[in-house]
Amino acid sequence: MFRSRANEKAGASKAPVSDATTPRDPQAPKGRPTPKRSQAQSQRRSVANTPVNRKDAARRQREVRREHMERQRQALATGDERYLPARDKGPVRRYVRDFIDSRINVAEFFLPLAVVILILSMVRVGSLQSIALLLWLVVIILIVIDSAVTVVRLRGRLAERFSGQSTRGAVAYALMRSLQMRRLRMPKPQVKRGERP
User: Fold this and answer.
1) Residues 84/75, Cβ–Cβ less than 8 Å
2) For residue 150, is it within any domain?
3) What pLDDT, on a 0 to 100 scale, did the predictor assign at position 147?
4) Residue 80 is part of which domain span?
């Protein structure tokens, strides 16, 4: 309650020294060494690089987003893990991609076959229309059988290779990739057909 002025002065002299990186109030006592010229210039540059108005901030944000998208596009072409989208990242997803890309999938030929079947079904010849209907049935059965075989094999390989890790969503990822034509797949295939992943 009652303190002497000598104790107050001693407490004031033990005040904490401020960090060199925080800006100093011009009216406050210094209490720290003068920064080197390079540090002062870098602080001024960082202040100068901050956007002044909303237009500059929006332009800078667009540039950053454009650079990010370009890095992501190149990563999809080369398979660089650092810049891949979240759904394609990780060793499990990489293995699934390599597993699907190393084999021939019936589902990847679905779109070209669908175009041929549609053309056959539009022709006004009864026998060609019945062949088109039969082809639809055969293609769908082949896709279902091939997908079932792929799922069984992939689950076994994932359980063997990634026993301690989470493989949630890997089978659905594999089926979606098998539906795409090989040359249109993203990330681009990194293995050849027949090559063991």
Assistant:
1) yes
2) yes
3) 95
4) 50-84
